[in-house]
Specification:
This protein has 635 residues and is of the alpha+beta class. The protein folds into four domains: 89 residues, no CATH class; 268 residues, no CATH class; 65 residues, Immunoglobulin-like (Sandwich); 93 residues. It is built from eleven helices and 28 strands. Strands 4, 7, 8, 9, 10, 11, 12, 13, 16, 17, 18, 19 and 20 form a 13-stranded mixed β-sheet that branches. Strands 22, 23, 24, 25 and 26 form a five-stranded antiparallel β-sheet that branches. Strands 1-2-3 form a three-stranded antiparallel β-sheet. Strand 14 and strand 15 form a beta hairpin. Helix 3 packs parallel to helix 6. It is elongated and about 140 Å long. It comes from Ceutorhynchus assimilis (cabbage seed weevil). This is Envelope fusion protein.
């Protein structure tokens, strides 16, 4: 009995299992067919009336590996039903435009240049003393007193210009030992921030880093921990120039002493030999003043460019900067520099280098900050809210992006408020930003860009639109949302067309085309290019004018330098003035034949010059340049 019951139960269980499997397969097939109907409602002949803009649809994917059934992605929102019986679907509620690739700044490496003005100011003060000593040895009774005085006036003028230049660079009053204005740190040092991208605390921290490098016993010029480098090459050149001035000043001092001694022994300045000796010393002082002025003027130019955050040769030589960047690269992990340090990229480096400047006591310190980036490259997107139409009239769903810009990699993402700096076409450098690792829960925009099947983080808003909304993305591309069906017109090279529109569109208008939506006209403009037109000037035959023919009267030449050839009226008046002077000449001064000959020469020149002016007037108009002046003097 037990054996029979067990056998019956086993048979019943197997029968139930097979029925359940058949039922499961049937339900699975029904479900699969139901999903397929959502995407196959549109046949080749006509569009189903039940499928409308705003419906939820599924998209069939490619066969998965090892799977016989196809996977359906979705749901997606139907945005357009095109006239050619094809539907256009995309992830709902956000439109993203990929701008290119981006790198995000993590920190920076600083290059420091310190210019100590104390030696050059001391040398200038010493030269002023020597100039006064020389001036005091010149007596008003000297034979060459006037010549000496004229030379000393130029010397004192240059001296005053140097004093004013020092006052502009270093905040002093009267002399270099008294501070006019500034902030003092706890150690009593005067610190003045020059550029607006640096604060007082930042200047003090940089000064401490520089001090550690300068006091390092190993004489290292780079500190990998503090990420700072002292640019010795530029500083050494500056110090050498000051050393040359110091050497020349010592030689000059000995020569002035010799002149003083000779003057005491004999009246040296009363003879030619003394005159040349004194003038040699004056010229030497002038040349040294000019050297000092040139150094300080270049330094002031460097300070001015640093205030504009613009790299200039007065701050650092580009080749030296590139060499220093290559040296720094050896201290870094791979791919930490924004771009490769090669000569072709030096101009790109100049676009994102931060230039800072501050003054400590009598030291002018320039800081060049080179940004270091995170490892890896991000895709850079500009996000725009895209209203999606619903079945209700003038009602749309829209998802507002968290922020307008998004940097996205395979493992991280970062939202940004401001557009990153474009350092080259389709390559961007972004300021330091908070990055987040990609995990199970992702923001809506990241899910949409990655075409995720799970878009639960998207929470669209329902909005009412009563008029077309047009948003420019970039030049030539607009986002257009039309809440009610209307007709737009296009015009491309005189080919006009009327297009019915309703819903959301990405509109791209080619150059030389126009699109009109109600009263709004959208048009792309080709950038204007400067073009030069070649103008063939006529050859002027000057053989008709005999330059060697002598005239029995003095007639002033007509200077064409002061005549604008674009204004032919001025030329005509000038030539008629010459002609009138000829006619006023009396018969006893000029024979009739001579008068006729000279009048003929003027008339011939008027004719030839008119032929010359006509194309020149066209050339001046075409180039919109300054008046064209022709240098021709004729007698």
């Amino acid at each position: 009995m037990n054996l029979v019951s067990s056998h019956v139960f086993t048979e019943y269980l197997n029968t139930h299992k097979s029925k359940t499997q058949v039922l499961y397969d049937e339900i699975t097939n029904k479900t699969q067919q139901s999903k397929e109907k959502l995407i196959n409602k549109i046949n080749e002949d006509k569009i189903s009336q039940n499928l409308k803009v705003g419906c939820q649809v599924y998209k069939k994917s490619d066969n998965r590996a090892g799977k016989s059934k196809k996977k359906f992605l979705g749901p997606f929102t139907l945005t357009q039903i095109l006239p050619n019986n094809k539907i256009e679907i995309e992830n709902p509620k956000t439109k993203h435009k990929e701008l290119g690739t981006a790198k995000i700044i993590s920190n920076s490496w600083s290059f420091a240049q310190t210019f100590n003005l104390t030696p050059i100011i001391n040398q200038f003060d010493s030269l002023k003393i020597q100039a006064r000593r020389l001036s005091s040895n010149i007596s008003s009774k000297d034979n060459f007193y006037i010549e000496y005085t004229n030379s000393l006036v130029s010397l004192h003028t240059l001296e005053k210009r140097i004093e004013n230049l020092i006052e502009q660079i270093v905040p002093t009053v009267g002399n270099s030992n008294r501070i006019k204005r500034g902030l003092f740190n706890p150690l009593g040092s005067f610190i003045k921030v020059i550029t607006g991208n640096l604060d007082q605390n930042g200047a003090e921290k940089i000064d401490e880093k520089i001090k550690l490098l300068q006091e390092n016993q190993n004489k290292l010029k780079s500190d990998a921990i503090n990420q700072i480098t002292l640019m010795d090459s530029t500083i050494d050149k500056f110090d050498k120039m000051i050393s040359n001035i110091t050497h020349n000043e010592l030689v000059l001092r000995s020569r002035i002493l010799q002149i003083e001694q000779v003057i005491k022994d004999a009246n040296l300045t009363q003879n030619i030999r003394g005159y040349f000796m004194t003038f040699t010393v004056i010229n030497q002082i002038t040349l040294m003043y000019q050297s000092i002025y040139s150094i300080l003027d270049k330094l002031e130019v460097a300070i001015s460019f640093s205030k504009l955050n613009t790299l200039h040769n007065s701050i650092v030589n580009p080749n030296e900067l590139l060499s220093e960047i290559k040296n720094v690269e050896s201290h870094l992990n791979p791919d930490r520099l924004p771009i490769s340090p090669v000569p072709e990229n030096i101009l790109i480096f100049e676009t994102f280098l931060q230039i800072k400047c501050f003054l400590k006591d009598f030291n002018v310190i320039f800081i060049l900050e080179l940004p270091l980036v995170e490892a890896g490259v991000y895709q850079y997107f500009n996000l725009h809210p895209l209203p999606i139409p619903t079945n209700h009239n003038q009602t749309f769903f829209v998802n507002i992006p968290h922020k307008p810009y998004l940097a996205l990699s395979d493992v991280k993402y970062s939202y940004m408020d401001q557009r990153c700096e474009e350092i080259s076409p389709d390559e961007y450098l972004c300021q330091k930003a908070r990055t987040t690792f990609i995990e199970n829960y992702l923001p809506c925009e990241v899910q949409l860009i990655k075409y995720s099947t799970n878009i639960t983080s998207c929470h669209p808003f329902e909005v009412q639109l009563h008029a077309p909304q047009i948003t420019k993305i970039i030049d030539g591309k607009w986002l257009v949302t039309v809440p009610i069906p209307l007709k737009s017109s296009t015009n491309c090279q005189n080919l006009k067309e009327t297009v019915p529109i309703f819903g959301s569109y990405l509109l791209e208008v080619p150059v030389d085309c126009k699109a009109k939506i109600q009263s709004t006209t959208l048009e792309s403009f080709k950038p204007s290019r400067l073009s030069f037109k070649e103008v063939n000037l006529p050859i002027l035959d000057l053989s008709l004018i005999n330059h060697n023919q002598s005239m029995p009267y003095d007639l002033p030449s007509l200077d064409l330098n002061i005549i604008n050839v674009k204004t032919s009226k001025d030329i005509k008046e000038k030539l008629h003035e010459q002609k009138k002077k000829l006619e006023e000449i009396t018969c006893f001064q000029l024979t009739r034949e001579e008068l006729h000959s000279h009048k003929l020469r003027v008339q011939q020149f008027v004719t030839l010059f008119s032929e010359l002016v006509r194309p020149l007037h066209f050339l001046g108009t075409a180039l919109s340049a300054k008046p064209i002046i022709i240098n021709i003097n004729f007698t």
